[in-house]
Q: What sequence folds into this?
């Protein structure tokens, strides 16, 4: 994948292969069932429908997507009669019309500096925590405010991958990928320790330096050059 010229040419980099993946991240594209040693398994949150991971083929083939994860679905119950989906975190848009619940902890958390994130968020970079789709469900959708925008078709439609937001206050809530959800920690009312980022990705496209001492990858994590932190040199 061709990368734009580095806006910080003085920064030094380590030699390594460049990313051949496109956004969203490799975690969204790989087969999670393989569960390599550095990956977390997908928990049983009570999804008993089909397919195992809704919209995993991408596009708009999932016609009843609203009744499946990560949207308005009902989890199965355990032997004790309690739902297997145990809410641990909640997120809400700015006006409160759209709310989501999350169970368990994220696979990973990252700061993304790619041009797409910069433009769509109107910010230097995106902070996202990565959850499996079946660990997310909608709690509230007042006035049918849920809004989807496809970065592939550039249309307001549920065409995966897509960006999910509130149609009233326009606050972005998460990205739905083929296998995962990339949620934004600032909507959770407070940032848990588990949401702290493990790295920066697409740091080669950054528009500002971030001096935080965590790894900075030119492209995707573990799939591109690991850049030297110029603040630490």
A:
């Amino acid at each position: 994948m061709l990368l734009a010229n580095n806006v910080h040419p003085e920064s030094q980099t380590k030699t390594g292969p460049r990313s051949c993946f496109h956004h969203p991240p490799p975690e969204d594209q790989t087969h999670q069932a393989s569960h390599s040693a550095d990956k977390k398994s997908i928990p049983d949150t009570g999804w008993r429908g089909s397919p195992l991971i809704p919209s995993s083929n991408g596009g708009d083939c999932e016609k009843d997507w609203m009744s499946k994860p990560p949207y308005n679905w009902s989890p199965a119950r355990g032997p004790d009669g309690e739902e297997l989906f145990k809410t641990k975190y909640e997120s809400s848009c700015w006006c409160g019309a759209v709310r989501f619940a999350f169970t368990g902890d994220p696979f990973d958390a990252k700061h993304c500096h790619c041009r797409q994130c910069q433009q769509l968020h109107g910010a230097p970079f995106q902070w996202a925590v990565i959850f499996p789709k079946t660990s997310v469900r909608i709690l509230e959708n007042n006035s049918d405010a849920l809004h989807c925008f496809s970065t592939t078709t550039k249309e307001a439609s549920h065409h995966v991958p897509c960006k999910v937001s509130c149609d009233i206050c326009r606050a972005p809530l998460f990205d739905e990928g083929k296998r995962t959800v990339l949620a934004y920690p600032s909507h959770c009312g407070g940032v848990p320790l588990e949401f702290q980022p493990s790295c920066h990705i697409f740091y080669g496209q950054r528009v500002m330096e971030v001096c935080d001492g965590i790894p900075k990858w030119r492209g995707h994590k573990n799939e591109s050059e690991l850049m030297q932190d110029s603040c630490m040199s």
Remarks:
- Residues 17 and 224 are 5 Å apart (CA to CA).
- The longest strand covers residues 126-132.
